[in-house]
Structures are given as structure tokens and as C-alpha cells.
Amino acid sequence: MIINGIDLSKVEDQRGAKVPQQIKGRVLHIDADFLAYMMSYEKEGHHIPLEDMQYNCQSSIEKMRLMAGASSIFLHLTPSLSDKGGRGDLAIQKEYQGNRKDRDRPDKLHVLREWMAKTFPAKMYMDCEADDGMSSQQWAKVRAGQTDLSVICSKDKDLLMVPGWHMDWDSFELAQSTDETGNPNEFGFTYLDSSKSSSKIKGFGTKFFWGQMLTGDTADNIKGLPFACGKHLSKPKKIGPVLADYYLSDLWNDKDAFNLVKGLYEMCGKEVGFTHWKTGEAVAWQKVFISEAQLLWMRRDTQDAGCVLKWFKEILA
Asked: What is the value of pTM for the model shown?
């Protein structure tokens, strides 16, 4: 990787990360949207030749492959004309990714993304998001009992709800959610991270999805559950990470999590109500519950916006 004329691929890794043994057939699924953005970024007044950006991509991809112990890679990209799985039409409480409208994008982002799609094994997703692509491919391996053959590498925390192996974007650390016997655990866990000025819910597996159903996702402008209501509270209380952690602490399976979170949406609908962000019209709590789930869920089927509803039926069966 060349930064300011220095070839970082020839500099020793100061983090001391060890290269794991390669596993035959393991594929590293890379969030190439973030990689393209990162590699095409130029500070004001500082020009980086396209050839250097391309070289940096190649070096980074190869290093990630090695650190994942993968024999091959696959890049997942969301082009600017993608409909992102119709999430914009599914959103009720807030405009989906409405906080990104005025965000400046690197001048060479589109060109670099197109080059990446042509140069490496890759897919441009026109009818969903790259996150859905990574999720669906990893879910397929988990369901087939081949968890070791798929690794996701993304800066986006949303994908941590997907079972199986994940590689940290910055540290290259490999991790997955497991049960007491060491087998993959799809439900996973959550915890309250209070290491910084503002606390956050973090975790792995589908329990992290339920955490986001409560707190929402500020990165994608998803509201989540706005208020906790009920007889145990003197008045509606705004949901934050601390209160969400309290609700999540005694949950150990998806069926219980579904019933708890659905019940909280129902109480909020009855005591406070929900309105559509665009029209201001009242919306039934059931529609809001489903909408938030569809926005937050990382799909197992990229073509199916109702994928999460099928999952609901599975866990309630």
C-alpha cells in the first residue's frame, strides 16, 4: 500500500499480527464499498494517481486474504444506482440513509469501484446491498455445516448479526460466536460497551439484531424503538443503550427475544403511537415493527425483502 510515496507492503506489521494457516476452500467476503471509499479518499489539495489507488487495493486485498487464512476472495459492491433492496420504500419512522444525502464522495470512487468489480471476483448488487450479499453467502455456509469456509470482513457492525467467522477490519482478528462446546452459536450475545463517552450495544449473532431493533442504527438513519412503555414505568422512557442492555440481559433465544421486542413495540404503539416520517400519518405498531426488522436484517436471500418474516416463522415454530 502506497501512502505519501511509502510502500507500506514492505514495512513490518507493528501490530504483530500472525498469518494463520490457509484453509482450502475458505472464501473471504470483503466489504468493497468501504474499501473503495477508503482507497479513493484524497485530502483537499492532495492528488493520488488512480494507479496508486489500484495498487493499494490489490495490496490490501491480498493482505486481508492472508490474514483470514482464505484461499480466495470475493468483493461485494453496491453501485450508486442500486435500489438497496427497496429499503427506502420500506422505511416508516425515518428516511432510510437520509443522513447521507449531502455527504461528499471521493472524486474517483465510481471509477475505482468499477475497476475493482472488473479486476477481482466480485458482484455489483443492483437490487439489494452488498451487506445482503455477504450475509447470504455466509448464511449458506453456516446452514451447510461449512462455517470454516466463509469469513466476512467489513467495517459495518450490522454484519456481526450474521453467524460464522468475522475478521476485524483494523486488527485482522478472527472471531465467531460459539456455545459452551465450541460450536457456532447463531443467537450469540450482546454487551454494553461503556469504554467511550457514549455507551453502545455491541455483540455477535441474532441477539445483536434484537439489540438494534431497540436502539436503531444511526449510521443508516434507522430509529428502532423510540420509547419503552408499560406498567413498570411511570411514563414512556426513551430507549438508549443502557435500557436496551437491561431488556436484553435475560434473553437466551430468538423466540423469547421476538416476544419481548414485539411486546415493547406494541406498548409503544398504544401509549405513544408511531407516525410516518414523510406524511405524518399514524401507522400501526405492527407495520413499524416489521419495517424496522426489514431495514435492519441482513438477508439470507438477497432477492427477498420478506426474508426476515420467514425467519420469524422459523423461530416461532
From this structure: 0.91
